[in-house]
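note to self — DONT lose this again. spent like an hour looking for the file last time. sequence + predicted structure for the chain T wanted, 197 res
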Amino acid sequence: MITLGLTGSIGMGKSTVAAMFRDEGVPVFDADEAVHQLQGPGGRIVSAIEAMFPGTTGPEGVDRPALRAQVFGDQAAFARLESIMHPAVGEERETFLARHAGAALVVLDVPLLFETGGDAGVDRVAVVSAPPDVQRRRTLARPGMTAARFEEILARQMPDAAKRARADFVIPTGGSLDETRAAVRDVIACLEALAGG
């Protein structure tokens, strides 16, 4: 099995690219989706988050705006949250890999792959990238997104140029969907050839 780490900064189109890999029959582990399940109703880390950040959970699981208010701009609080999140997401990833042990290729969709050292645990890395103006426009179009929050998120992420420099593949998303899909298919073909050879 070849594990491909898929990453990219906010607003780069990573979710769209992950869906394209799925459309091509490649199993995809979505770290963000794992977080939503872990933090959702009955999620297994909800009680740990409530214990560390009182008043941030309820019947629907984690109240994301309330949690964001407690960690926004506070690096120590954010580090405490990550100390709960990262191990739990890691366990979900291991379960996914075991379930797809027979696959020739799997994608691990991890937004902070480089920032968390996750690139050391994959065989190859693909970075999804778009021009800065496209990234900003996409991100600020999200519900509840503000320019200040966008800048805070960017500050926690490795710059796009640095990610591209460390990647085995760069998948551009600034053009048409057909161009992006062609790039995804090229990556799959390259990795399948590698697996076969």
